[in-house]
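ok trying again, last paste got cut off:
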Amino acid sequence: AIQVIKMYVWERPFEAVVQRLRRDEIRALRGSAFIRSGLFALRIMPKLSIFASLVAYVYAGNALTAVKSSLLSLLMKELLPREGSVTISGTVSYCSQKPWVFEGTVRENIVFIEPFDENRYNEVVRVCALQRDLMLWPNSDQTVVGERGVSLSGGQKARVNLARAIYRLADIYLLDDPLSAVDAHLREVRHISRYSSSYDSDVDVTEETIETDQLLEETTQEGPANSKVGENQNDGTIGFRVYKDFFKSVNNGLFVVLVGLLLLAWQASSTGTDYYLLIWVNWEEKFSGTPTATWTTDDHILLYSGLIALTLLLSVNSFAFFEMCLRASLNLHTSLYRGISRATMYFFNTNSSGRVINRFSKDIGLIDAGLPVVMIDSLYFFLELAGIIVIVSLANYWLLVPTAIMAALFYALRYVFLETARNVKRVEAITRSPIFAHTNATVEGLTTVRAFGAQRQMLSQFDAHQDLNSSASFLFGAIARGFAFWLDLICALYIAAVVFSFPVLGTEIVSGNVGLAITQVLNLIGMCNWGLRQTAELENQMTSVERVLEYSRLDEEKDTTKPAMEISQNWPQEGSVEFRSVTLRYAPHAEPVLKGLSFEIKAKKRIGIVGRTGAGKSSIIQALFRLAPIDVERGTILIDGLDTGAVPLRRLRAAISIIPQDPVIFSGTLRSNLDPFEGPGQPDDGRLWAALEQVNLKDVVANCAGGLDAKIVEGGANFSVGQRQLICLARAILRDSRILILDEATASVDPETDNLIQSTIRDHFRECTILTIAHRLHTIMDSDRVLVMDAGRLVEFDSPANLLRQS
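nice, full thing came through this time. structure:
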């Protein structure tokens, strides 16, 4: 869907939607953060308890259906009949209308769960016309197709999908219009009305009823595959720059400084309170009740009360700190989305959606909830540790020696722990991405998986991904337990050193000093165990910030590839298109998929683009929209005589409309799918209804609950494939561009919908330049000229009549 978003220049409205949803999420998180902040503020409770006890002691002494596909779903028992029963005897093989290709090699996609039989495999490859593709792909049938078959063209995915169904030895083959996306000379049969003579019987389905069942005699992407890029795993410590960037993401330096000062003031007040307690106890021991005392017990209670009140007041630092972290998280999420939405298509072609989802779910989740707690724990630990060292040193300065030794041991132990734990945590994060990717692929092809009975195999693959991730998680837990053991041992030795230091060193023993020193180091054993683990966990969780920052700084699409030029407001007026020696690569070092391509299209002409699968047809679209880089030193694309490399990217894409091969429908309302922009200057309801009427969807939408505001489920599943394509046509009508591209737009629809789309295009876009990539020859027979592609080069460019005569 990201490619459609880029082509329609919808990044900003989608970003606005994401930010609105994110603000709602942050609003909910603030409630839990408030509670957590309150719990941190309760750190002063022990002091209040001591104060109350001492005073008491002193004074006391989150429809529409595709009917034909539903029939197959009934046969496969994906749907349950309202009445009657469905019985199937024998094994079933299924080929879906929308090709399902999972992340793996071409061979793995064809063989799937069946045992490999070389003779049968070679025969299937031959009958599905994949031999030439195997020769063109860099690693033949071991080429990795990428997630959703991103490195394959639509026709290649359709034939791999069909090959999987044919390869399986089954009793029943259920084929849901499998050849709709295949070019004409590779297809011996097409939609049912065109190849029904190949079958023994025909079932005509209207609405949800099978009307007749009788004998027919009675009723007469392309280019080289992209290799999957491994997910980046950083090494070494989390750099200071990551922490700096986290606090910079608050976007308010004064607020960050204020929070820091509040933390320091709170610790100073807390340590001062403890130290004053030492003074008070020693005073009670020496001067209480003597006539020479200049202070009274009431004076000490008043001063101690003031220190307690100040510490309690400064506990507001935890509320400020959590608010600061939520602001940082909100801004990091925004920068992550912007980085993703502005990334080049090469990034999406070489990285699975699991990696992106991993960062938006797990990593952002940790930054939202886990990181603030761990970070404030770590800050409190270091501040309180400093306070304890100061107090113990004041009680007995000789204790600085074991304190220094303990600090050195802690540092060494923490260093060893972090060196291991940090990398294990990174491995855990990276092994989590394949879980998301595998789950997405399984859900998308769930019907095929069930038809093949491959649930157990898919579950085994999921378990393998999960086991790898769980082993990393378990290893991290085991390392943390070992770390805790050695911390406890060091703390116990330090406590022993403090306790025996007073009698061994022979210093004057003052009960207040001894009591305060022992209580402080007893607190230290629990605090060090918890605190050092939290500081280590802080560094581990900062890897999530590091990963989010990595994706927020992806290489962006260049706004212009040549010096910008002045462009008129109504550009393009005519819609002429010219390619001059255009060479295009999908990756910097990949083989070119367009090789010195040159042709000229006059304004308002209808051009058909044909060629075998992988010939470079869709690459022409990639070049027009600047979705892939062209060789700017030698190649040029002109629209109305203007070099598109000098046109800002958003302006260029807004000037071109496209109806893609696979209709992309987003969750939300029908209105937002037709035009997600809001505010003045956007289409009113009258224009939206007029566009729907032109594509024969007005009555369908009017019967939906909500009309234009009818809810659309994920992927537009409550509309048929044909209806989804008509929605895409309505989008193009609303954009009213001078250049329209049809990327095999009718490949997956029935002939009736095909005819409707063709007639609408002829009526509404008669003043536009139209480029049609087609598999069905009849869709381009009324074109002014036909451009024939082969292996990235122009072979012929002439009128349909002349081409037919030459052939």
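cool. The domain at 1-42+237-552 is CATH 1.20.1560.10 (ABC transporter transmembrane region fold). Residues 222 and 614 are 5 Å apart (CA to CA).
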